[in-house]
Amino acid sequence: MIYFQLCFEFFKIGLFAVGGGLATIPFLSELGVRYGWFSTEMLTNMIAVSESTPGPIGINMATFSGFHAADMFGGILATLSLIAPSIIIIIIVAQVLKKFKENQIIQAIFYGLRPAVTALISVSAIQIFSITFFNTDLFSQTKNILDLFHLLPIVLFIILYFGYRKYKCHPIYLILICAALGILFQL
Predict the structure, then answer these.
(1) CB–CB of 69/6 below 8 Å?
(2) What pTM value is reported for the model?
(3) Which of the residues 1, 55, 76, 92 has an alpha carbon 20 to 30 A from that of 175?
(4) Cβ within 8 Å of residue 134, ≥6 positions away
């Protein structure tokens, strides 16, 4: 049953997560809540690992999610189910590419999808930001304002942001630095 759920859910994600891998994050967040396949904290770890490993983030996250939910076969099924809608659509579009390219209705549809993609990516960014920098669970228990913030990630973010802006450091170096610091400080 879990294999069917993985296929069905990741097929839907592949069909509706228009705009790339970051647009899959709200869908994955909802899957974690609905099925309990992973926690919100695990989702942020999946994002970090998926962003820092080669390949598209959406596929990396589908593989990681499926593997976590149902081992290696689950990872394979989730990945194939995520890419299946794209393959199907590409085959269909390739057959009538010239008509799609010149059709004003299709162009208007894609233009109208831009705000939806922007909203999905914005929601993902806000979720990642809040999970990374705030500890609302600990704060609700202690009511200590210092317990609300994850200070080390905030300081690291500020240093890396200004370092990137000032020195134009390549993003790969920033990813490697953050990975090393994450290991060192067990973030």
Answers:
(1) yes
(2) 0.62
(3) 76
(4) 148, 149, 150
